[in-house]
Write a structure and sequence with these properties.
Largest interface: A-B, 41 and 29 residues
Number of strands of chain A: 10
Order of helices and strands of chain B: HHHHHHHHEEEHHHHEHHHHH
Strand content of chain B: under 5%
Largest sheet of chain A: 6 strands, mixed
Strand order of the largest sheet of chain A: 6-7-8-3-9-10
Distance between the termini of chain A: 41 Å
Shape of chain A: globular
Strand content of chain A: 15-25%
Number of helices of chain B: 17
Number of helices of chain A: 10
Number of domains of chain A: 2
Number of strands of chain B: 4
Number of domains of chain B: 1
Helix content of chain A: 25-40%
Order of helices and strands of chain A: EEEHEHEEHHHHEHEHEEHH
Strand order of the largest sheet of chain B: 1-4
Structural class of chain A: alpha/beta
CATH topology of chain B: ABC transporter involved in vitamin B12 uptake, BtuC
CATH architecture of the largest domain in chain A: 3-Layer(aba) Sandwich
CATH class of the largest domain in chain A: Alpha Beta
Structural class of chain B: mainly alpha
Radius of gyration of chain A: 19 Å
Oligomer: heterodimer
CATH superfamily of the largest domain in chain A: P-loop containing nucleotide triphosphate hydrolases
């Protein structure tokens, strides 16, 4: 099995604080990979370093989006690219999409329009042809509208397509954000605490949805999550970190048995 | 069965048809004026209202859709006016070249300014654009070869296709320009471009994660807004046949902000209504009232109060009031249905 993402020796510090310290792990093809750790362990920082919102002080983020995508982006002949230094808005072109902890949607737009944002980079029509609504631009718009509807129906919220996104309940917004990632035909989806704010049955549904997305799109999923039930249920492998340092890596069972993880993380619960 | 009703229905739904109908109605105004039903001064006021609606449309694209503020509107509008006068009268290149110059040159300068100033946000962007506008204003006062300085630049009605235009013809040109601007704005905001602007306003971080090159789209919005301002400036000149530097001051820029806020952020018709309320209502109504009408600076007080009222109580502006009114009407007509649909949505979730 080849790796879609390989993080090597990632380090970043903010002032005197070492948020990430020589962290390495890799995510395999079609794998659901969990990243866990106590609060402040640096999970979100890892995300931000991968998606280039932060520029790491040291280390590399190797991403293998497939030969075709690399070719299109002008990296001929290589099978992986170091994302470090890429502009944030170019990252999605490689098929690396993320969701946000606090669900970032555009409240004033319809659910469908929100999903269409996910296809932003695929639009070929020039600004001018869009401003004049030339046939090419209109055809393209219709084509992606169809695709967005499919993404919505995959997450079973297509009946809400024309509703205003801002008026939707939290669960729908979360699904909407997932549908949006599908527009990019992802190779790797990064989910930042997808279960936060969901009730138990919704969390169970979420686990199914994550697996369905993986199976249908053949992509990998990198998951940061506090809900241990979800993580243990859905992840193939889990990486535990603490204070920005690598702690353990393994299957859910191995992680549950790991003494270091218990000390750093699960052990805390016993003290409560 | 038959195609006729569906075609008609599709036409009626097409917003572009709406804009054209709106324009056709506006074109009746000069006819009313020439038949004596409308005073010439009223026609002038309405003409300026439409010109301000064009500028305000540009600012709505910035403020409403992209979440960017500009206090430099007046400067770019003035630049358009002086360019139109310079090209038409001093260079003698005629109407179309004048309009082209008033469109292109402010846009280019706007983009250059944008490259520098769009790296800062909110209040700093307001200060940066205000500075540019003040620099332009000083230039208008000093560059006498270009503007005739404070004495004012005098111009004349343009010649179109070999025919000398008059006030009514310039009014029609303004209407055509406004309808085109409304169509263009509609196209921009209903598609990938508009979604990118929306995304940027909602969250720059999320927009970037979705692949939106934030600087590029900020520049785009800024360029279109300056282009509208340049166009409006040229129309202003052709309509008034003169331009004075004192016109292009901060108060004008603030009034344009008021038009957008009062009319309704992200509303095309709302912007036109906003321009009417902020510019035409003081001219046509307030100034004719006894006692109050004599207060100097009345329009400023009026738009200031309206901005505060709109921001505090009607953040959607007049467009929001319109939506509420329509909703009430619909509920009165079919009381059960809206409740039903709401319940449906919750249930499905």
């Amino acid at each position: 099995m080849s790796d879609v993402l390989r993080v090597e020796g990632l380090s970043i510090s903010f002032g005197g604080l070492k948020a990430l310290d020589d962290l390495s792990f890799s995510v395999a093809d079609t794998e659901v990979f969990g990243l866990i750790g106590p609060n402040g362990a640096g999970k979100t920082t890892v995300f931000n370093c991968i998606t280039q919102f932060y520029r790491p002080d040291a280390g590399a983020v190797w991403f293998a989006p497939g030969a075709e995508r690399l070719d299109r982006a002008g990296h001929h002949g290589s099978d992986a690219i170091d994302l470090v230094g890429e502009p944030v808005h170019r990252v999605i072109r490689y098929g690396l999409v993320r969701t946000f902890q606090n669900v970032e949607i555009i409240p004033e737009l319809s659910v469908l329009d929100n999903v269409l944002i996910g296809g932003h980079v695929d639009f070929k029509a020039s600004m001018l042809s869009q401003m004049l609504r030339l046939p090419g631009a209109r055809k393209e718009e219709a084509q992606y509208r169809e695709k967005a509807r499919e993404a919505l129906s995959f997450l079973s919220i297509d009946h809400l397509a024309d509703q205003i996104a801002g008026g939707q309940p939290y669960g729908v917004r979360k699904r909407l954000e997932m549908a949006r990632t599908l527009m990019a035909e992802p190779r790797l989806i990064i989910l930042d605490e997808p279960a936060a704010g969901l009730n138990e049955s919704e969390t169970e549904q979420l686990a199914d949805t994550i697996r369905q997305i993986r199976d249908r799109f053949g992509c990998s999923v990198l998951l940061v999550e506090h809900d241990m039930g979800l993580v243990m249920n859905v992840c193939d492998r889990i990486c535990a970190i603490s204070f920005g340092k690598f702690l353990a890596l393994g299957t859910p069972e191995e992680i549950q048995r790991d003494v270091r993880v218990h000390e750093a993380y699960l052990g805390e619960r016993d003290d409560d | 069965m038959s195609d006729a009703p569906t075609t008609a229905a599709r036409l009626a739904r097409n917003p572009h048809v709406g804009f054209v109908v709106f324009g056709a109605l506006l074109m009746l105004l000069p006819v009313l004026a020439s038949s004596g039903l409308l005073m010439t001064s009223t026609l002038m006021t309405l003409g300026f209202t439409l010109i301000y609606a064009i500028v305000a449309m540009g600012l709505n694209l910035l403020l409403g859709y992209s979440g960017l503020i500009s206090l430099g509107t007046a400067g770019f509008m003035g630049l358009g006016a002086y360019l139109a006068a310079y090209v038409q009268d001093d260079l003698g290149l005629g109407f179309w070249v004048a309009v082209l110059a008033a469109l292109v040159i402010p846009t280019v300068i706007g983009v250059l300014v944008g490259v520098v100033s769009l790296r800062v946000r909110s209040i700093y962007l307001a200060i940066a654009t205000l500075t540019i506008s003040e620099i332009l204003l000083k230039t208008f006062e000093q560059a006498e070869w270009f503007t005739h300085g404070t004495a004012g630049k005098q111009s004349r009605y343009p010649v179109l296709f070999g025919v000398q235009a008059d006030r009514a013809v310039v009014f029609l040109i303004i209407v055509v320009a406004l309808v085109l601007v409304m169509m263009l704005t509609h196209n921009i905001v209903h598609g990938q471009l508009g979604r990118a602007l929306h995304a940027m306003r909602a969250s720059e971080v999320a927009a970037q994660a979705m692949g939106v090159n934030v600087l590029k789209y900020k520049l785009f919005a800024f360029a279109v807004a300056t282009m509208y301002a340049g166009l409006a400036g040229a129309l202003y000149l052709f309509f008034l046949k003169s331009s004075y530097p004192s016109t292009w001051n901060l108060f004008l820029s603030l009034n344009v902000v008021a038009m957008v806020v009062v009319g309704g952020l992200r509303s095309i018709y709302g912007t036109v209504v906003g321009a009417f309320v902020i510019f035409a209502v003081p001219e046509l109504v307030l100034k004719r009232l006894p006692v109050i009408g004599d207060v100097s600076g009345l329009p400023y007080i009026f738009s200031g109060v309206l901005i505060i009222v709109a921001i505090m109580f009607f953040p959607q502006g007049l467009r929001g009031l319109w939506d509420i009114g329509r909703g009430l009407l619909a509920r009165r007509r079919r009381p059960a249905e809206p409740v039903e649909t709401v319940r449906d949505e919750v249930g499905v979730r």
